[in-house]
Amino acid sequence: MEVTGKIKVVNPEQQVSASFRKRELVVTTEEQYPQHILIEFTQDKCDLLNNYNIGEAVKVSINLRGREWVNPQGETRYFNSIQGWRIEKMAAEAPAAAPMPAAPAFAPATNLNEDEPDDLPF
C-alpha cells in the first residue's frame, strides 16, 4: 500500500530499548478532506528519513500492522500501526505545456471524378 502527500512532521529517532529504535513521520494527504497520517519507520528503516524535509511531496510504501493485547484484568484490546518501509520524493509537476498548434486545414478536393474506379481496399 502507498500513502502520498506532503511531509508535515519528521520526528527525531527514538531509542525505545537497547535493541529497538523507531522514527515517526506525518504525511498530510492532498484530497478534499486532507488526512494527517502517522507512519512509523523502525530499525534500519529509520535512516530512510534522513534526507527528507517538511513540505516535500512524497510517496511512502506502507504495511498495516495489527496486534492483540490482553491487559491484567483479562480484557482484550486491539491496536493498529502503519509501518513505512520505503519513501521516495514525488516528481515536481512540470508546468502545463503550451497547447499544440492546430494542423493546417486542407482545402477540399475539387477535382473529383465520379466515373473513376475506386480501387481502395476498404
From TrEMBL:
InterPro entries: DUF3127, NA-bd_OB-fold. Residues 102-122 are annotated as: Disordered. It comes from the Bacteria. Pfam families: DUF3127. Residues 113-122 have a biased composition (Acidic residues). This is DUF3127 domain-containing protein. It comes from Flavobacterium sufflavum.
